[in-house]
Amino acid sequence: ATTKNTVRDFAVVMTQIVLWVIRFAPFGIMGLVADAVGTNGTDAIISYLHLLAVLLGAFFSVALIMNPIIVWLHIRRNPFPLVIATLRESGIYAFFTRSSAANIPVNMQLCKRLGLNPDVYSISIPLGATINMDGTALYQGVCALFVAQAFNVPLTLQMQIGIVVTATLGSIGTAGVPGGGLIMLTMVLTSVGLPIEGLALVAGIDAILDAARTCLNVVGDTAVCAVVAVSEGEELLGGREQG
Ligand code: ASP
What we know:
Order of helices and strands: HHHHHHHHHHH
Shape: globular
Largest sheet: none
Helix content: over 70%
Number of strands: 0
Structural class: mainly alpha
Strand content: under 5%
Distance between the termini: 57 Å
Number of helices: 11
Bound molecules: aspartic acid
């Protein structure tokens, strides 16, 4: 019982410390942005806009081109009703919560309405929310390039392959909570030898990047779940109705 109480008290203390860090984070981030803009001038803002444009372009390409192609290849019918339904429902919720984990019930409801088998979606949606983070992998890869350019580090082929591998592994290891991908970005940067200070550059606009990448993370989960369900002989009822 004493050990149990100690562990519980430790958990309470840790939770409190994490809450303090979360509350103070916006001030720290504002300081980092002020420092980055103060040191690099308004060029920093232009670079941020550039980063934002590249990432949003990549996110939209995956959501509206790559995902529909994957769905079409497996289901052989118009994938857009399904893709639009996922973007309209889970996508919007994920954008505002910035958490794949919080989105699990919303995604499951959607799968239920699409007529998918609960045996399939009750496994694939929680699993996907934890490991299937294409938005996060994309974000970590692009941010690593951004940091390399900002610090004028030439990227060898070996480093580029390292970024692809660590960003993929990093996204699998990222927790489905707001800002999880930013923390794992430290691993991507250090493992390929990029300066960890680069994190400060992207931390300033992480909230908006997080909203967008979480949206992509969850819509991919539903698309893959539908593909798995159909490969198991399911009929995608709701998707057709919604189309
Ligand atoms: N917020 C993201 C998610 O929950 C994880 C990340 O920060 O990349 O999917």
